[in-house]
# Entry
Amino acid sequence: MIAVHGSVLAQEIEIESPNIAYSAIYPILIVFGVALVGVLVEAFAPRPRRYVVQTVLAAAGLGLAFVGTVLVAGDLPETQNGLARGGIEAEGALAVDGPTLFIWGAILLLSFFSVLLFAERRLESGVTAFAGQAAALPGTEAEREASTRGLEHTEVFPLMLFAVGGMMLFPASNDLLTMFVALEVLSFPLYLLCGLARRRRLLSQEAAVKYFLLGAFASGFFLYGIALVYGYAGTVTLAGIDGAITNRVGGDGLLLAGIGLMAVGLLFKIGAAPFHAWTPDVYQGAPTAVTGFMAACTKVAAFGALLRVFYVAFGGAQWNWMPMMWIVAALTMGVGCVLTLTQTDVKRMLAYSSIAHAGFLLTGFVGVQAATRDSDDMTSLVAVMFYLLAYGFTTLGAFAVVTVVRDSSGEATHLSRWAGLGKQSPVLAGVFALFMLAFLGLPATSGFMAKWAVFTSAWAGDAQLLVIIAVLASVITAFVYIRVIVLMFFADPVGEGPTVAMPSVLTVVTIAAGVVVTVALGVAPQPVLDLAHQAGEFVR
Amino acid sequence: MDLYLPILGLAVLGAGFAVVTIVTSALVGPKRYNRAKLDSYECGIEPTPQPAGGGRFPVKYYITAMMFIVFDIEIVFLFPWAVAFDSMGIFALVEMVLFIATVFLAYAYVWRRGGLEWD
# Structure
C-alpha cells in the first residue's frame, strides 16, 4: 500500500497548459464579461444611475457579442469534406461551428430586444416591471415602502446576461459535462428572474418555485443520464460517445437508459410533452418581459443542444431513439394544440401555443439529417434553426404586445378583456393579429416558411405520419388564433374595456422588430435559409 | 481485494464509533429537557418561523455559510494550480488571476450591499 502511494507522489506530473483559441470563443466571453461589469455597477454606482448604466451596458454588450459572432463566422475553416465549417475549441469543451454561430446570432439578437423589454419603464409610470424589493413579503408594509420609494432591482440585467452566456454555451458544448454546467448557468438566473414581477407577486413567486423545483428534477435526470452514458462509453466527449456507439462497446441497456434520461432533461427545457407541465404556470406568473425572453431564447438554446447531442453523439443509435422522439413530437403537438383551445388567459394561451410549436420543431428534428455537399435539400438542422429564429421573433413580439394592454391592476391578460381591442387601437390589434397568423402559419408570414421547412425535412425523412399529425394540429390551433382575432375586431368590449398604454420607444422598437422579422422571413426567407445552409453540419 | 481492506477497516471503525457513542450517551447521559432542546435543530440558527404565521427570517447566517463555501471551493482549485504551476507558466497565472477576480467581484457586491454587516 505504502509503496503504491510513494510511487504516485514521487512521479513528476507533467501538465501542459491548455490551448484556448480566444479568437473563436470571445463572443461568449464578452457576454460574461459585461455581466460581471454589471455586478460591479450594482456594487459601486449610485442607485439613481444604475438603471441607465445597466441598460446601456447590457444592450451594448449583446450588440458587441453579435458583431463578434458575425466576425467569427466570417473566417470559419471548412472541415469534413466541406460539409461542416468550424472546429473544436477550448481543449474539446466547445464546438464553434456553423450551427453554433447561427444559434449564437439568433440568441444574441433575441436577447438584445429582450433587454429593451426589460428596460421598459413608462408602462409602470417610471419604474421597471420588476419588484422593487423582492425580499419584501407581498402585501406588507416593507413592500409598500419599497414601492413608494421607487426602488428597482437593476440586478435583472446582469442576471439576464448570465443566462444569455449559459444559453450560448449550451448548444456549443462538445462534452456532456460542459453541457450540464451550461444548463445550470442558463437556468439559475431564469429561476430568479421569474420571481421578480412587480405586480401579482404571489403568482410570480409561485412560478419561480415551480420552475426551480421541476428544473432541479430535470437537471437531476439529465445528470443521471450523463452518468449512464459515461458508464457505457467511458468518455463524456460527444465524438467519443459516437465512436463507442459505432463500435458497440457494451450492452445497449446502459446507453438507452442514458439517452432516455438525458432526453428528459433536454425536453423539459424545450417544453415538450409530457415534460411541459411547468410551462403555462411559469409563463403566466413570470414578468412578461422575462416570459418573452424565455419563450424565445431558452427554446433556441435548448433545441441547439438537443440537436447537437442527438445528432453528433447519439447519431449511431438513431433507430433506437427515433420512435421515442416520434411519440414525444406527436404527444407535444396534441397536448399543445388541444389545451390551447381551452385557455382564457393570453399568457397561458401563448404558453400552450409554445408547447405546440415545440412539437412542430420536434417534427423537423426527426427529419433528414445528413446533408450532401452542394445540395439544397432541406435538412432538419436548417429547418429547425430557421424555425427557431422565426418563432423567436414572433413570440417575443407577441409577449411585448401583452405588456401594453393594461387596466388599473396591471396587464389585462384575461382574454375577455381583449374584446374590442381592435376598436381601441387598430394598429396594436393588427400587429397582434399578424403574430397570431404567423403562429398559425399563414402564407407571407415567417410561420408559413418555418412550417414549410420543418414539414419538408420531416417528409423527406420518412416521417410522413408526423407531418400529417402536424398539419392537423395546425388546423386545430388555427381555431384559437382566429378566435382571438375575431374577439379583438368583432366583439364588443366588456365594461370599459382594456386601455392600451402608450409604451416608451423601447417596447415599440421590440414590437416593430417582431413585425419586421415576421414579415421579412415570410416574404423573402431565402437569405436566412441560405445562411442556415452555409452553416453546414455540426463538427465532430 | 487487499487494496480495499483499509477502506473496510475505516468503515467499521466509523460505524463502531457512531454506535458506541449513541448507545453510551443513551445509557449514561442525563436527560433534562427544556424548550430549546425540544425545538427543531437548524444548524444553530433560530428555527424558521411557520409559513402560516408568516414573518421574515434573517439571511445573514446563509450569506456567511455561502461565502465560506465559495472560499472553500476556491482553495480546492488553488491547490492543484499551485502544484502544477511550474509546468504551466504565465498562462496559468493569468487564468487564476481572472478566476479569483471573478470570485472577488461577487464579494465586492456583497460587501457594498451590506451583506457583511451582522447587525
